[in-house]
Amino acid sequence: MQGQLIGILLSKLTIPPSPDSIVPVTEGESGTKLDYILSCANYYVKVGDLEKAVYELDKLSGQTAYVVKDWKKAALDRIAVDKVLKVIKLECSLMNKSMGGNA
Residue 46 above 60 pLDDT? Predict the structure, then answer.
């Protein structure tokens, strides 16, 4: 219990890397690269760009990729629904215009 409380406290005190920062390329810093990828994905989710978030998560491998697999599937489903919704709205708009409903 104490370890969890300390972990929560430390996570609030640390600052995740900015998506604008340079990606670390050294092999010894895989944890830093992982933090960068997750930080970028988090940023894209916050701004509402799920496609870019999924693209960032595609860079993950191993256990981390396995952990986010379900979230990625749900995000891809949401992206597909959003695209279909845009097409339906466009069709309704065109149908409304062609039927003379210029309200």
Answer: yes
Q: What is the DSSP string of the chain?
A: -HHHHHHHHHHHHS-PPPTTSPPP--GGGHHHHHHHHHHHHHHHHHHT-HHHHHHHHTT--HHHHHHTHHHHHHHHHHHHHHHHHHHHHHHHHHHHHHTT---
Residue 102 has a pLDDT of 56
- What proportion of the chain, given as a percentage, has pLDDT over 90? 41
- Whether residue 65 is contained in a domain is answered as yes
- Give the number of domains in the chain: 1
Q: Is residue 71 part of a domain?
A: yes
Please give the average per-residue pLDDT across 63-87, as a whole number.
93
Is 103 part of any domain? no
